[in-house]
Amino acid sequence: MNILLVDDDVIDRATVRRALRHNKDVTQLIEVCSAEEGLQAASSGDFDVLLIDYLMPQIDGIEMVIELRSRPNLGETAIIMMSTSDDDELALACLQAGAQDFITKKEITASKLKRAMVQAKKRFELEKKLYDSFCQVRELAEKDSLTGLSNRYHFEEALKISIDNNKRTSHTLALLLLDLDHFKNVNDTYGHDVGDKLLKHVVAIVAKCLRGNELFARLGGDEFSILISNLEKAHDATLVARRIIDSLEEPIEIDNHLLQCGVSVGISLYPQNASSAEELTKYADIAMYRAKKLGRNQLCYFEEEMQLQFSRNYQIDIELKEAVKHKDFELHYQPVINSKTNNITGVEALIRWPTCSITTFPDEFILIAEQSNVIHSLGVWVLETAVKQLADWQQTYNPAFTMAVNISAVQLGDELLVSTVSDLLERYKIPADSLILELTETALLLSDERNNKNIVELGSLGCRLALDDFGTGFSSLSHLINYPISIVKLDKSLLPNSEDDLRHLSIVEGVSAMVNSIGLDIIAEGVETQYQLNLCHKFKVNEIQGYFFDKARPAADIESHWLIKTLINIDKHS
């Protein structure tokens, strides 16, 4: 036997060594002086018996036993506790913690210690068999035998525990109930064997749609449940449900049969919809029933307001994908005006979607485009359309004319973004510094290694980078230091409406002075009054956008209202 002796007393360790000296069954004896060293040795060594002193500094013997017994397979080692005390309650506490025997140090002799080790080892073997049997029974009680997922009983118990725990943290929980569409037809047509194989395939597909920390269970038949904890926003549950629905749209081949398996998903939220596990389950079931009534292969929220919002977003998403295919968008352009000459120096490209039946607000459909990743193809269209228009205007009117294009946070992470911009600059032969790429402060806050790399490489191409909406919640001077920003765009919310608005007045003055001092250009957005224009002149704001000069217009209107007039004025003065 390999023995580990854990005792901080040198004399007591010597007593144990003498008792084991002539024991032929002992092949190795390792000695350590503390529970910490004992835990480390037990992790790295293969021991048959641990001899542990009860009274040790910092971590005592009982704490060490509890730690060992919490490990997989109970630590795989028999334990004998030793103490100078012969107190019965102490002996009982040691056994309850997980030791197999207790011996007082004054009783230690060669024969008694040998007998104690043999008996402890045998007791541990019996306890291990009982523990393994318990684990098997528990797995049978908690696991679905076909799919290996948690079963209904385990899921319901886990849901109750999650809700109880969540009452302290106030996070959102989402319960998703999934029911396979027309699964009964598969069993009736091809038999239960094919149906069982289909269920296993579905489980594997759905599992790939999850992050890994959700509780995924089979409630019975073709009904499944997913519990998502610690949601930051309810929309995250929508993303999971949509991934599952989309992933099951492709036919699944089972035994040379091509099977179509859609899924209806009902979603309820804690604490928004319910305060107990029973209510949460009932409401998710109602939502799933509604999803089936809507035509199956759908998701539905229990809460009517959320369902209306989801339905609206879903319809926008469907139209958006078709619109991207057919390029049913327009770019309007808002003039950027030189604050000294009042002449147009460039424009900002702003997307419009005139054919959408639901919304005309870019902020709404751009957010949905980001969530469905349509933003990448949409962003390419915007860039190409804007650059092509810029090339035409530079050739016809002004070689120094500029074009600003907004780059979303999601688009910034596209690995093809830099090559796309580079190809467009080359194809349309425009100077890189005439293309201004506008980044939001939120995008910089969420930046990762890919985003940072793209920002640096876009700057290296020669494009000018503008920090858009400066001053709207996440302003940080570090952005101006850490990124190759050359333009700061003051958000319209910063501009005061009168001399009485002292706070905004001071902010604009301070920001303008700071930006000018570090050599960056400033563009003020949302200038609507003569007072605000005068203020921009006073604080040396380089360029101006806003309704005081003009709104965003189609390209033809920009030419007739601005470019032709500017060209005529230039000819007059030349």
Features:
single chain; 3 domains; eight-stranded mixed beta barrel; five-stranded parallel beta sheet; 574 residues; 20% strand; elongated; TIM Barrel; alpha/beta; Rossmann fold; 20 helices; Alpha-Beta Plaits
Q: How would you summarize what this structure contains?
A:
By secondary structure, the chain is of the alpha/beta class. Helices cover 49% and strands 20% of the residues. The strands form four sheets. The protein has an eight-stranded mixed β-barrel with strand order 13-14-15-16-17-18-19-20, surrounded by four helices. The protein has a five-stranded parallel β-sheet with strand order 2-1-3-4-5, sandwiched between helices.
Describe this protein's structure.
By secondary structure, the chain is an alpha/beta fold. It is 49% helix and 20% strand. It folds into 3 domains: 2-141, Response regulator (Rossmann fold, 3-Layer(aba) Sandwich); 152-302, Alpha-Beta Plaits, CATH 3.30.70; 328-573, TIM Barrel, CATH 3.20.20. The chain has helices at 10-20, 35-44, 61-69, 88-97, 110-142, 152-169, 183-190, 192-208, 235-247, 277-293, 304-326, 362-371, 375-396, 417-428, 441-445, 449-461, 477-482, 502-517, 530-538, 555-573; strands at 2-6, 28-32, 49-53, 78-83, 101-104, 172-180, 215-220, 223-231, 252-254, 257-259, 263-270, 299-301, 330-338, 344-352, 402-406, 435-440, 464-470, 485-490, 521-524, 543-544. The chain has an 8-stranded mixed beta barrel with strand order 13-14-15-16-17-18-19-20, surrounded by 4 helices. Strands 2-1-3-4-5 form a 5-stranded parallel beta sheet, with helices on both faces. A hairpin with a 2-residue loop joins strand 7 (215-220) and strand 8 (223-231). Helix 1 (10-20) crosses helix 5 (110-142), helix 7 runs antiparallel to helix 8 (192-208) and helix 14 runs parallel beside helix 16 (449-461).
